[in-house]
Specification:
Elements lengths: L1 H20 L14 E3 L6 H18 L2 E7 L7 H12 L9 E7 L4 E6 L9 H17 L3 H19 L25 H16 L1
Amino acid sequence: MKFLASFALLLSLLCNTVSVAFAAPDIPNPVGDIYVQDFAHLLNDQEKAEINQMGRKLDDETKAQVAILTVDSLGDADVEEYANEAFRKYKLGDKKLNNGVLILLAKKERKIRIEVGYGLEGAITDIKSGEILDSYAIPNLKNGKYDTALESTYKAVYNQVVKEYDLGTDFEQKVPKASPPSDSGVHFTTLQTLLIAAVIVGLLIL
């Protein structure tokens, strides 16, 4: 009996450990318009209104839904797992067409991911997602411009959906090019470099 009791206790502990290890990420419930879920408070009211307007316009024309989710932290989850769970919870896009897109940004980890529904995987491939993030998200994040990173990434994704549904250039958004990451290192002019080299050579001779 003691052996069975001990075995049952051990099995219970193992089950609890496994359930904690594989616990689903804590995804916040959506609030207001689905297109902007800014729980990390990285966007101002004007930016939110602009994105919501674009999202509604695209939704009305195509039933596709492109949404932004910002969180303070991913917790114990990785960015892929968190984005996938959030995409499922928010049920983005048309149920039959599965044409939703989620742009997730975690502030603490500075991680960003584009999660795409099956219906748009031909338009927004993994390669295209990587190009968008490399061109617009990453440079702005390195400069601490979270809002610009989100806006630019949203517009770039939005434009890909516009092209997929052949809505025309009137629907497309202008996406400003990202500034290169700021460099706090010390740089010298050619003349300064030559003078420093001359001083070093002079010291070596002495």
